[in-house]
Amino acid sequence: MNFIKYRLISFILSGLLILASIYGLARFGLVLGVDFTGGSLVEVLSEENKDQLKKELEEADLVVDQIQETSSGSLLIRLEGAWQEKDDLLSFFENRGVQVLRFETVGPTFGQELFKKALIAIGLTIVLILAFIAWRFSDFNFGLAAVTAMIHDNLVLLGAFSFLGQFWLAPVDSLFITAALTTLATSVYDTVVTFGYIRDQLKQSFSSTNIEEAANEAINGTVVRNINNSWTIIFMLTAILLLGGETVRWFAAALLIGTILGTYSSTFLAVPLLVVWQKAKAKKKKR
Predict the structure, then answer these.
(1) Is 133 in contact with 142 (CB distance < 8 Å)?
(2) DSSP structure class, residue 98
(3) At 84, which CATH number?
(4) Among residues 78, 106, 134, which one ends one of the domains?
(5) Domains in the chain, number
(6) Rounded distance, CA 195 to CA 267, Å?
(7) Distance between CA atoms of residues 31 and 59, nearest Å
């Protein structure tokens, strides 16, 4: 099948995903976890409903960010500044017969520092991957195409979580950063395999003008393998998403979205972009 012939469809789809992501991020923002903002996250079992409990917490001068019900029937409470009143908070729940299942607390300075380091880690990873692929294939366009696909994946992942955060309070926390870095790995691994096929095809043809044909043969030679590999991961993550607890559910969701995006972009975005840029480069040389 001539996949490259239909590259405009991939570009339009990716453009729509990016526009939707930018809209979501601008309109809703992200629900940052306590890892990054500081504060406390408490999971409790209570006979009171979330509105009653929120009212009582606020009457006790505790600032409540969010309270949500989990699938297991517990309440997940996020509070600002409660790292300083941990004992008072535990006493508050104990006096009301509320069972505390989980208590996490992070100071504001540590949270901000962790957020900065997470951004640096992602940025450094992208730069190193760009340099490695450009060196590995002796062509900057290969590295640029791979990195563009990775940035696309993480931007759309962030956009997806802006919508999930708005409607289901999905947090962007340290586990999300792990999922984002894993998405980078998924995308670049499949991309490097496909780029390797393209390089081999070009070496056999001894002509840079055959980039479109070489790319199409590479996609046909790797697409089934890439999709089959991704299916095994998708099945596993879907099971965790449906059956796992609240702690890992959004982590699994981020990995699931990232895996799907990485599989799509490595074949249907990175390769077509490489073709367009290599053809433009060849035309420039002829002038």
Answers:
(1) yes
(2) P
(3) 3.30.70.260
(4) 106
(5) 2
(6) 9
(7) 24
CA–CA–CA angle 264, 188, 112 (5° rounding): 100
- 86 and 200 share one domain: no
- Domain holding 233, by residue range, is 4-33+110-286
Report the alpha-carbon distance of residue 270 to residue 144 in Å, rounded. Answer: 9
Task: Mark whether 209 and 70 lie in a shared domain.
Answer: no
Q: What is the DSSP string of 214-275?
A: HHHHHHHHHHHHHHHHHHHHHHHHHHHHHHS-HHHHHHHHHHHHHHHHHHHHHHHTHHHHHH
Helix ranges, 28-96 (H): 34-37, 50-59, 86-95
Contacts of residue 243, defined as CB under 8 A and 6 or more positions apart, other chains included, come to: none
213 CB-side CA count, 13 A: 10
- The answer to whether residues 211 and 279 touch, using CB atoms and an 8 Å cutoff, is yes
pLDDT in tens, the chain (287 residues): 889 999 999 999 999 999 999 999 999 999 988 888 877 888 888 888 888 888 888 888 777 778 888 777 788 888 766 555 677 778 888 888 888 888 887 776 666 788 888 889 889 989 999 999 999 999 999 999 999 999 999 999 999 999 999 998 899 988 999 999 998 888 898 999 999 999 888 887 655 558 898 999 999 999 998 899 899 999 999 999 988 777 789 999 999 999 999 999 999 999 999 999 999 988 888 76
Q: Which two tokens stand for residue 118?
A: 């997470």
114 shares its domain with 95: no
Structure tokens at 195: 């780029």
Q: What is the CATH number of the domain that holds 144?
A: 1.20.1640.10
Tell if the pTM clears 0.85, that is, is over it.
yes
E strand or H helix that includes residue 66? strand 64-69
Query: What span, in angstroms and rounded, lies between the C-alpha atoms of 235 and 198?
Result: 30
257 and 170 share one domain = yes
